[in-house]
Amino acid sequence: MNRAGFIRNSLLATGAVVGGNSLYAQGDRTINGQDNKPFNLNYGPHQGQFENHAGKNILDQIQFAYDHGFRGIEDNGFSGRSVEEQEKIGKLLAKLGMEMGVFVLNKGGNGANTLTEGKQEYVDIFLKGCHQAVELAKRCGGKFTTVVPGDFTRKIPLDIQTANVIEALRRGAEILEPHGIVMVLEPLSDTPDLFLRTSTQTYLICKGVNSPSCKILYDVYHMQRNEGDLIANIDRCWDEIAYFQTGDNPGRREPTTGEINYKNLFKHIYDKGYRGVVGMEHGKSMAGKEGEMKLIAAYREVDNFLQ
């Protein structure tokens, strides 16, 4: 997927810049009388999901999310922000005790500079992104960076493509591992051209890399589309899964808008011990403040799994 375009269009974001007038009213910290206590799982909103209440300033959006029970965020485009803005985000997260989820490792795009080809210049671009990720993580306090290896190289046998990917990821892990940073590999459903498709394929690659710095990003939306059997596949791949993202299917909007039983799924990963960020990488089913209220209410509903 085109992540920047997805966040911009589906979430109605416009690209916040730190500074300017704050539109967040300090007294506006309740939504429709909802309980604002922390959630059982650590859901991480994206920029733009609360901009109708909080305004376009990313810091105000983070504060708004905190005031409504969220204790994490995601920022796919973090690498494209200025250093000053990155540092301000990191400081606010630290002050609030919030966790940064994933930011995308800069390799030129999901399908671009594919590691399946084994081409040195593409590997070098990826390794440069790994070095950059170390510096980005220092500024935001995060430790997860999303990696999509790239498109298939159809002229090369599949097993050779897999070996090329494993070899490149091993070299990336050598850069990230001393800093405790984890690249999380994301199998996607956006186009059949993308090499990484299923959780079990990604599991095999992680086993081949054999590093604590190379794990699976299990995006429930994409995996429902590509393979289904969600809970069983989560269990099969559990020891290599380091991160989750959400989005209901069809439509890629908040939980309760589609076919996925998120309440059961969240209870399952909670019972298995997952306490990391659950990234809210999806759109909203309604626009405006009403849509933001509906999004928060949906997460309260599916998070109510301990009773």
TrEMBL record:
Domain of life, per lineage: Bacteria
Native organism: Parapedobacter indicus
Any one Gene Ontology molecular-function term assigned to this protein's record: isomerase activity
Tagged with keyword Isomerase: yes
Keyword set includes Disulfide bond: no
Protein name: Hydroxypyruvate isomerase
Organism lineage: Bacteria, Pseudomonadati, Bacteroidota, Sphingobacteriia, Sphingobacteriales
Keywords: Isomerase, Pyruvate
Domain called Xylose isomerase-like TIM barrel: residue spans: 63-283
Catalytic residues identified in the record: 186, 281
